[in-house]
């Protein structure tokens, strides 16, 4: 039997793998985007706790970032998937259920990426806030701005400007972390490439296609982030 060529594999015909690879790429993007924005929400709260929270909140936020950044992302995924499955199975038995009940693999992936990226978001946002010149805040206070007006007009825009490069790096990390979710059975891009490689006996071809797709996603998102950085840096003199 003749093995399919590169263009036959990426075709969208009945014998091609283009359709399933495209669907798997969408799953990868969905995992990365949902996990990224969940992590951003967590990062905003944790950064606020580190900057303005009391001692207890600062301790919790410090512990969160230290622990999550100190353990492998794959381990976080395992903890959510198998730990969540154990909890659901236990609860199911309390209500008369029998047997193993698996935690939704896609949800476990989103939560794991969100928790992992949240620790990085926290430090990026905290550093961005610290980079806001104190003179800007003092001038806003002298003009009679209240706390929320100062946040809306001074702190948030300037912090976002300083945070964007770091937020872009966190996105790239979240995109790569999505490949680890394949261990839970989610058929994202890497998992689909493994299936294709096993079915056709062409591992190099499928993994090369996966690498190209990952690079395309990364390049497009990088271009969007660069445009966003330029937009929020309008009026800033460059060295």
Describe this structure in words.
- The chain has a single domain (18-232), classed as MetI-like (MetI-like fold), CATH 1.10.3720.10.
- It has nine helices and no strands.
- The chain has helices at residues 6-9, 18-52, 55-70, 73-94, 105-131, 134-142, 147-177, 189-200, 203-232.
- The model has no long low-confidence stretch (mean pLDDT 89).
Compute the average pLDDT: 89
Helix content: over 70%
Q: CATH topology, what is it called?
A: MetI-like fold
Helical run tally: 9
SS content category: mainly alpha
Number of strands: 0
Give the count of structural domains: 1
Shape: flat
SSE blueprint and pairings:
Layout: H1 6-9, H2 18-52, H3 55-70, H4 73-94, H5 105-131, H6 134-142, H7 147-177, H8 189-200, H9 203-232
Helix pairs in contact: 2-3, 2-5, 2-7, 2-8, 3-5, 4-5, 5-7, 7-9, 8-9
Task: List key phrases describing it.
9 helices; mainly alpha; single chain; 239 residues; flat; 0% strand; 78% helix; MetI-like fold
At a glance:
The chain contains nine helices and no strands. The protein has helices spanning 6-9, 18-52, 55-70, 73-94, 105-131, 134-142, 147-177, 189-200, 203-232.
């Amino acid at each position: 039997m003749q093995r399919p060529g590169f263009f036959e594999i990426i075709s969208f015909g009945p014998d091609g793998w283009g359709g399933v690879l495209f669907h798997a790429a969408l799953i990868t993007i969905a995992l990365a985007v949902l996990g990224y924005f969940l992590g951003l929400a967590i990062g905003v709260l944790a950064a606020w706790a580190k900057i303005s929270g009391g001692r207890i909140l600062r301790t919790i936020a410090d512990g969160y970032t230290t622990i999550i950044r100190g353990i492998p992302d794959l381990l976080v995924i395992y903890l959510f998937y198998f730990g969540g499955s154990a909890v659901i199975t236990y609860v199911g038995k309390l209500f008369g259920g029998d047997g193993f009940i698996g935690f939704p693999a896609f949800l476990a992936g989103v939560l794991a990426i969100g928790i992992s990226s949240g620790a990085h978001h926290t430090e990026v946002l905290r550093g961005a806030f610290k980079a806001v010149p104190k003179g800007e805040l003092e001038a806003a206070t002298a003009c009679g701005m209240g706390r929320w007006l100062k946040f809306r007009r001074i702190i948030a825009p300037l912090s976002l400007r300083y945070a964007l490069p770091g937020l872009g790096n966190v996105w790239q990390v979240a995109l790569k972390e999505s490949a680890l979710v394949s261990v839970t059975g989610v058929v994202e891009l890497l998992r689909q490439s493994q299936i294709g490689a096993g079915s056709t006996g062409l591992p190099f071809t499928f993994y090369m296609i996966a690498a190209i797709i990952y690079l395309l996603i990364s390049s497009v998102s990088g271009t969007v982030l660069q445009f966003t950085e330029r937009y929020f840096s309008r009026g800033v003199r460059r060295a």
